[in-house]
């Protein structure tokens, strides 16, 4: 059985580093790709002979990209991944978040990613399609884009 590749983007900041720290204690390091604006800031314990905290063999793969990367750069960063943990852009500005998050979803699909786990919030109204909170608006737009993309491509979830 082929190894599944899991990516985390962006693998920086509190949520990104917490996500990969937890994940690397559960899966072999050579099945994980960390994508960051500054991959050199990923602790070397995860990239040197798989000696991360969990001791799971192999080295993680590091790739460089950010939400501001071109669609082609994002697609290259996501190439070969089966699943992607897509962490939301850290801003309260709805329009900018949407501007950078939706192209990242599209790049992931074009790159062949089959499943996206998206870090959203839980502040929508009961309908799940609207919110008075500005910060939630971008999450709702991204969730809707993920739903529409999955409906158009049955192999993408």
Structural summary, described in words:
The chain is an alpha/beta fold and 157 residues long. Helix content is 36%, strand content 15%. It is built from four helices and five strands, in the order E-H-E-E-H-E-H-E-H. It has helices at 13-23, 71-78, 94-111, 134-152, and strands at 6-9, 32-36, 61-64, 83-87, 115-119. It has a five-stranded parallel sheet, sandwiched between helices. Helix 2 crosses helix 3 (94-111) and helix 3 runs parallel beside helix 4. The longest helix has 19 residues, at 134-152. The chain is globular and about 45 Å long. 30% of the residues are buried.
Spell out the blueprint of helices and strands.
Elements (H helix, E strand, L loop, with lengths): L5 E4 L3 H11 L8 E5 L24 E4 L6 H8 L4 E5 L6 H18 L3 E5 L14 H19 L5
Parallel strand pairs: 1-2, 1-4, 2-3, 4-5
Summarize the structure.
The chain has 157 residues and is α/β, with parallel strands linked by helices. The protein is built from 4 helices and 5 strands.
Helical run tally: 4
The coarse overall form would be globular
Count the E strands. 5
Overall SS class: alpha/beta
Counting copies of identical and different chains, the oligomeric state is single chain
Helicity level? 25-40%
């Amino acid at each position: 059985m082929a190894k599944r590749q899991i990516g985390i983007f962006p693998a920086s900041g509190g949520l990104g580093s917490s996500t990969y720290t937890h994940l690397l204690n559960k899966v072999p390091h050579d099945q994980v790709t960390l994508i960051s604006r500054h991959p050199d800031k990923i602790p070397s314990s995860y990239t040197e002979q798989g000696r991360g905290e969990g001791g799971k063999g192999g080295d993680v793969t590091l790739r460089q990209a950010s939400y501001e990367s071109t669609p082609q750069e994002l697609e290259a960063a996501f190439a070969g991944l089966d699943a992607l943990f897509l962490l939301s852009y850290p801003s309260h500005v709805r329009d900018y978040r949407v501007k950078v998050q939706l192209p990242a979803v599209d790049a992931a699909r074009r790159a062949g990613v089959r499943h996206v786990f998206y870090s959203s919030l839980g502040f929508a109204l009961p309908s799940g399609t609207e919110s008075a909170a500005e910060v939630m608006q971008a999450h709702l737009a991204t969730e809707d884009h993920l739903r529409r993309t999955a409906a158009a491509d049955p192999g993408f979830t």
